């Protein structure tokens, strides 16, 4: 998960935007055909996302990626909530406050 967090944190090939979309509940379109575990160097968006699928961090079905379970969703939210994420952290923090405000209203 540390390598995944580094790719997200440093926004390698706009992977951060893909993760933000998936954390928001939106599937992300990707073409991951032709990648194998041996060839993955994690230099491009497709290589990074393919590695994340191979290692179980993402689910790939019918050309779309999503986060496979609640536990991983929490891990991704934790990565996005790091101080180093800047504006993304502020959005994550705001989204956490929204349910609390609606419950107390």
Quick recap:
The chain is mostly helical and 105 residues long.
The average pLDDT value, as a whole number, equals 78
Shape: globular
Listing every helix as H and every strand as E from the N terminus to the C terminus, the arrangement reads HHEHEEHH
> Strand percentage, roughly?
5-15%
Radius of gyration: 14 Å
- Number of helix segments? 5
Oligomer: single chain
Number of DSSP strand runs: 3
Range of helix content: 40-55%
Instruction: Outline the low-pLDDT stretches.
Output: none
Termini separation comes to 37 Å
Physical arrangement of strands within the biggest beta sheet:
1-3-2
For the largest beta-sheet, the strand count, sense and barrel status come to: 3 strands, antiparallel
Structural class: mainly alpha
Secondary structure elements and pairings:
Layout: H1 2-9, H2 15-23, E1 28-29, H3 45-54, E2 59-61, E3 64-66, H4 70-80, H5 87-104
Antiparallel strand pairs: 1-3, 2-3
Helix pairs in contact: 2-4
């Amino acid at each position: 998960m540390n390598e995944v967090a580094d790719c997200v944190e440093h926004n390698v090939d706009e992977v951060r935007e893909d993760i933000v979309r998936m954390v928001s509940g939106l599937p992300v379109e990707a073409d991951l055909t032709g990648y194998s575990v041996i060839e993955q160097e994690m230099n491009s968006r497709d290589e990074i996302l393919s590695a994340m699928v191979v290692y179980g961090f993402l689910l790939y079905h019918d050309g779309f990626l999503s986060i496979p379970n609640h536990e991983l969703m929490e891990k991704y939210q934790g990565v996005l909530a790091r101080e180093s994420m800047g504006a993304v952290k502020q959005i994550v923090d705001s989204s956490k406050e929204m349910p609390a405000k609606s419950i107390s209203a």
